[in-house]
Amino acid sequence: MKAVITVIGHDTVGVVAKVGTVCAEMNINIEDVTQSIMQEMFCMIMLVDLSKANVPQDAVRARFDELGKEMKMQVTLTRQEVFDAMHKI
Questions:
Q1: What are the residue ranges spanned by the domains of the chain?
Q2: What sequence ranges are listed for the domain ACT (predicted)?
Q3: Can you give the chain as a three-state secondary structure string?
Q4: What was the pLDDT predicted at 39?
Q5: Which of its termini does the chain have fewer beta carbons within 10 Å around, N or C?
């Protein structure tokens, strides 16, 4: 299963590294990533593959919720088909 991870918040050092580390710990493959800084706000979107994750999906979601709290940023995990449906015009 593929999913989209979005990260939004004030720019700080190490955001990409922290999210990447959590992905590696759970055996989640990062397939694509884009990021930008808009007026000191960090915005990142990652396309990830959860098919070989070593923990259940609810544990993945809980870990990213926890990471968002640790970094004081909004970190959201959304299944790709849901993300695509939400962003159709």
A1: 2-86
A2: 4-82
A3: CEEEEEEEEECCCCHHHHHHHHHHHCCCEEEEEEEEEECCEEEEEEEEECCCCCCCHHHHHHHHHHHHHHHCCEEEEEEHHHHHHHCCC
A4: 87
A5: C
